[in-house]
Amino acid sequence: MDKKLIFFDIDGTLLDHDKQLPKSTKLAIEKLQELGHELAIATGRAPFMFEEIREELGIHTYVGLNGQYVVHNNQVVYDHPLDIEELHRYSAFADELDHPLIFENHEQMYSTKEANLYVDEGIGSFKLKVEPIYEPNSFRERKNLPIFAFLYRGTRVAVPF
Hints:
Blueprint: E1 5-8, H1 23-34, E2 38-42, H2 51-57, E3 61-64, E4 69-72, E5 75-79, H3 84-97, E6 101-104, E7 109-111, H4 117-124, E8 133-134, H5 138-141, E9 148-153, E10 155-158
Parallel strand pairs: 1-2, 2-3, 7-8
Antiparallel strand pairs: 3-4, 4-5, 6-7, 6-9, 9-10
């Protein structure tokens, strides 16, 4: 059999509706690895959000943040942060509307507002063990830190730049 590179999404593919890794999925991944296939994850999630899954499944290649951060065999091969000027414009727009923003990079997420029902609800749907750090000026203080931003208004709307 020819060796293949096989990509998996996380939500609804590797993880079930309850964000659990089914035993059947783990066994299928192990079988594909035994057959010599290279496995990868492709997701909109930030890498810190699926680190445990990668470790449990022994997957060391992934595309995160909707293609903005790519790792092959634990080596970053592509890192495309958002333009800082665009982030300033977007942040100003959100501030005018009094909407919180969540900025993510491969290690963490930062919120421009403290406690917020929409942020809690949106982030809570991922069932993560980490919460956004309140730093309203996170992208201003760290050049090119954010890679992805969320704007919340009633329901979660992800806005990739």
